[in-house]
Amino acid sequence: MLFKNRVDAGQRLAEALIRYKEEDLIVYALPRGGIVLGYEISKRLNAPLDLIITRKIGYPGNEECAVCAVAEDGHMICDSSSVSLIDSQWIQENAEKEMEEAKRRRLAYLKVERL
């Protein structure tokens, strides 16, 4: 299926989800591109919109190659075989740094902190 843009994709997805309009729901979106889709869906379904903000933890010296992803609440998903090769203290320090960046982005995107 082809879409004109993210707005079109969000509107079409919202129509496919319309049966949930009367449900107690929250639309979660991933920044950055997912916010546009999430907004269109939340608007059409009259549901609150929230973000799931994650940050990548890369290999030491090769930050573009991901070892883990961390959410602002500290939840991490890691490649166990890769993470076993890296000092756990280094991973923890970088996780804390990326969690702070995720919190900063939440404030920038939504102007509110997570409760």
Describe the structure.
This protein is of the alpha+beta class. It is 44% helix and 22% strand. The protein has four helices and five strands; from the N terminus they run αβαββββαα. It has helices at residues 6-16, 33-45, 80-83, 88-110; strands spanning 27-29, 49-51, 54-59, 62-71, 76-78. The strands form two sheets. A three-stranded antiparallel β-sheet has the order 3-4-5. A two-stranded parallel sheet has the order 1-2. A hairpin with a 4-residue loop joins β4 and β5. α1 runs parallel beside α2. The longest helix has 23 residues, at 88-110. It is elongated and about 50 Å long. The model has no long low-confidence stretch (mean pLDDT 92).
